[in-house]
Structures are given as structure tokens and as C-alpha cells.
Write a structure and sequence with these properties.
Layout (H helix, E strand, L loop, with lengths): L2 E9 L3 H10 L13 E9 L16 E13 H14 L7 E6 L4
Antiparallel strand pairs: 1-3, 1-4, 2-3
């Protein structure tokens, strides 16, 4: 089975909503457990450019936001649904989402 690691950065206030959306879409399934994830808190930095519609901040101004880095795993057959669920639950117009293939050793 092909498995991927999904990493997404989200403002702390919306972390629970994004985790719930990922789990409901089938991400975070490990053996007899579901909704599995790992979270690290940090500071996200960005500057909205012309044409952006920022949820936080203003065009042209550098922002620093307390965010969570949420990691989970996802089977290939659920990946598209999980990514769509993240985009729907995420407050940013351009969420930072990384997807990595991972090697499963059985």
C-alpha cells in the first residue's frame, strides 16, 4: 500500500478543525487507530503580495502568526479527499501543504 505524509501549517485557533477534517476524510489511519496526527507549535511568517486576499494581515506587510505544524499519514486512495478536506477547513486562501511519499516497512 502506498502511504504519504501530509504536513500542513495552520493558525492555532483552526488546528482542531483542520485535524478533524483530515481524520473525517480518512487521513491519520495507523493500524487499529484513526485520526492520528502530531502537532508542533511555531511561528509562520509571510508577506501578502498584490492580488492576495489575506485572512490575517495586509498586502505588503510582513506578518508573524502563531501556527501549528500538523503531520499525519494518508493512504494513496484517500489522499485526494484528505487534501480537499484540508483546503476546505483551512482559513488561508493559499495553505502551505507538503506531501511526501513514505516507505512502509511491514
Amino acid at each position: 500500500m502506498k502511504v504519504y505524509k501530509i504536513v500542513v501549517y495552520v493558525p492555532e485557533a483552526q488546528g482542531d478543525a483542520v485535524r478533524a477534517a483530515m481524520g473525517a476524510a480518512g487521513a491519520g489511519w495507523i493500524g487499529n487507530y484513526d485520526y492520528c496526527s502530531f502537532t508542533v507549535k511555531g511561528i509562520g511568517r509571510f508577506r501578502p503580495l498584490a492580488g492576495a486576499n489575506p485572512t490575517i494581515g495586509a498586502v505588503g506587510r510582513l506578518e508573524a502568526v502563531e501556527e501549528e505544524r500538523i503531520e499525519t499519514v494518508c493512504a494513496k486512495d484517500r489522499l485526494r479527499d484528505a487534501l480537499q478536506a484540508i483546503r476546505t477547513a483551512h482559513p488561508y486562501e493559499e495553505p502551505a501543504i507538503d506531501v511526501y511519499p513514505i516507505e512502509v516497512i511491514e
